[in-house]
C-alpha cells in the first residue's frame, strides 16, 4: 500500500489493539471521506515461536504445544501434528480411536463456529446476541471436557490412538446437547433472515470472489462461501471420514452473509457426522498392538524422513511439514495454517467499502491472529 496520502485522504491505523479484533494485529486503512481506498495487514505482535518451540521438544511434549497455536482449533492442530508423526513412524491408528478422533474434532468445529458467530454478532452491533451462542457453546464444551478432561486445550490425541476412551453416558449427553444446539441455531437463523438492519449490513457487503480466494490460498468457510466446494475431509480424506455421508457446505454470494451461513450449515453437518460416528463406532483397543514405541516413555525416536500432513480445521487447511533426523525431536517443523491467507484477503475485500463496514467484514472472516503469528 502506498502510504502517501492526498489532501483529501487520511491514513487510519486500526489496532494492533482493537475491541473488534480477536488478537493483536494492525490494519492500516487509507480512506477518502468514509470510503476505503487501500489497506494493508500487519501481523507479528505476538511472537509465539510455536515452530521453534516444537523443534526443542520431544514429539510427545509437542502435543500440548500445538494446542496453543489456536485454542479454538486445538484438536485439529493435534490431528495435523500427530498425523505427521504417525506417517513418519508408520503407525496406523486403530479404527475405534479414529472414530473417537472424528467425534471430538467435529465437536471442536462446532464450538469454534459458535464462538466465531458470537464474536461476529457483537462486532456488528448485536452485543446481546453474543451471549446466546456462547450459552450453547458451553454445552458443547461440556462434552469435550467429559471426554478429554479440558475445555479448550486438550492434549488428547496420541501417536496411534487417543489418551482415553469415550466416557460413560457420552452418547446420551450428545443427543441432549444437539437438541439444544439445533434449537438455538434455528432461532438465530430466523433473526438473520428477518432483521432488516442485519441484512443491510451483510448482504452484498465484503464480497470475496473465487479467483481472489484461490490466488491468495484462502480455504475453509471463506472459500466455500464463494461457491468452491473444497474440503480436505472430502478431497484428501483422513481418519475415517470416507465412512460418513456428509456434504460440503457452500454458498455462492461470497459476501458476509454467505460466510456466516456456511458456518451455520457446517454446525448441522458436524452434528450429523458425529451422530453417524456414534452409530457406527466399532469396539476394540485404542492403540494398535504392534506400536513401535513404548507408550509409557516420553521419548520416541522417529526414523529420518520428511512429511506433510493436512487436515480440515474450523478455518480451513491446517498442514504440518515435518523433517526428522532420527532423534527424539523434530529437526524442522513448518505450519501451513489457514489464517494467514485469510488475513491477506482483507485488503481486496474492504477496498471501496465504507469504513463502518470494515469491522463487520473482518469479523466475518473468523481469523485467529495467534495462529497466523507463529
UniProtKB/TrEMBL annotation:
GO terms for molecular function: NAD binding; oxidoreductase activity, acting on NAD(P)H; quinone binding. The keyword Protein biosynthesis does not apply. This is F420H2 dehydrogenase subunit D. Residues 124-374 form the NADH-quinone oxidoreductase subunit D domain. It is an enzyme of class 1 (oxidoreductase). Keywords: Oxidoreductase. Its EC number is 1.6.5.11. The keyword Oxidoreductase applies. The lineage of its organism: Archaea, Methanobacteriati, Methanobacteriota, Stenosarchaea group, Methanomicrobia.
